[in-house]
Hints:
The protein has helices spanning 6-22, 26-42, 49-68, 72-108, 127-143, 151-159, 161-164, 172-175, 190-221, 228-259, 277-281, 286-297, 307-325, 329-351, 360-382, 386-395, 407-418, 424-435, 439-456. By secondary structure, the protein is mainly alpha-helical. The radius of gyration is 23 Å and the shape is globular.
Amino acid sequence: xxxxxxxxxxxxxxxxxxxxxxxxxxxxxxxxxxxxxxxxxxxxxxxxxxxxxxxxxxxxxxxxxxxxxxxxxxxxxxxxxxxxxxxxxxxxxxxxxxxxxxxxxxxxxxxxxxxxxxxxxxxxxxxxxxxxxxxxxxxxxxxxxxxxxxxxxxxxxxxxxxxxxxxxxxxxxxxxxxxxxxxxxxxxxxxxxxxxxxxxxxxxxxxxxxxxxxxxxxxxxxxxxxxxxxxxxxxxxxxxxxxxxxxxxxxxxxxxxxxxxxxxxxxxxxxxxxxxxxxxxxxxxxxxxxxxxxxxxxxxxxxxxxxxxxxxxxxxxxxxxxxxxxxxxxxxxxxxxxxxxxxxxxxxxxxxxxxxxxxxxxxxxxxxxxxxxxxxxxxxxxxxxxxxxxxxxxxxxxxxxxxxxxxxxxxxxxxxxxxxxxxxxxxxxxxxxxxxxxxxxxxxxxxxxxxxxxxxxxxxxxxxxxxxx
Length: 469
């Protein structure tokens, strides 16, 4: 069940109505919301509902065991078992084919045939997201930052449908307490919620889907058919596409949660305005960046050791972050690329004799450099092989006619980047103006926006990019 569909619209209207009717009756609300979330997830493949149930029971049992145990060694063993089980679930569904193929190819270089079975395993959508949420829960219980929630509460948290498939990664300490706060539908920021949903639909349906079909997918599929300008615009187009696609999903998720009376953490903050790679990762997929920092980088030692140890921790964190995104060496290399850039930036900062002057011209140069370094990384991220990466880069030397670079494509690319430089105060004032409309005028404005979305977007509904992660 995809967000930009009539099926989801009907589902959400029913759930939103039941949400406010049942909210005074907490147990009934939880049971209904759990069933609705499982129904939402099972609409792709009902069998994977049992996977979420198994993950819920496994992690809740680990949390309760750790909370009841007073022996530190036993608590560590339970934590290690829970983390290993969660990673094992991801490894089986997401990385089995990748690991087996890599082993077979490695030994084949030495003329050795390794008869390992290659199985056709269906990847459950959103598995990385809800598994990381489950891991944060058990780790926080072990650290004493969280006490085990009732099983029903934890089950609702893990399966809550708005963020279930592609985030944001919401922690239990951010969600579960909200189930116990009094909510008044008259105090809900309905205008902000609807604005996020409509804006997210526009990003996905109009911007991301149009760029994908017009230039990005054809260029990455067959770079040899395109000239340098088309390839360059195709790379810029993918930078805008992946931002519009992923932030569009999280906007819809946050907006839907807002209408239901819940607050989710922001996941994007104008990432293409970043002044450095470190700044980029503070703005891009922020809930994952914080997760990697708190549950991987800091436990590895963070920056508490020597300079070399800090660089190692950065590299390991980003390598594993790259692997989290997909089962391919291009993702691992993409993660290593960002890890190397982060280490290089830290080295420059630590070894610089004096700070660089902060001038408008220097900030502009830093933004341009950061954006192009990120775009170079997006080639690694999007290409299906390193050979394809080399083919794309080589086409940047072949200048000629560029029929694929249409005014519409240029407008979407320039607009997708330029909109991130609009002051946040202006955006807030626009939402405030929308919120002051009378109900009839607001309904008419929303209906008109949806009609425009339907007319401007291409036919069909493409899955969100991050569904496969």
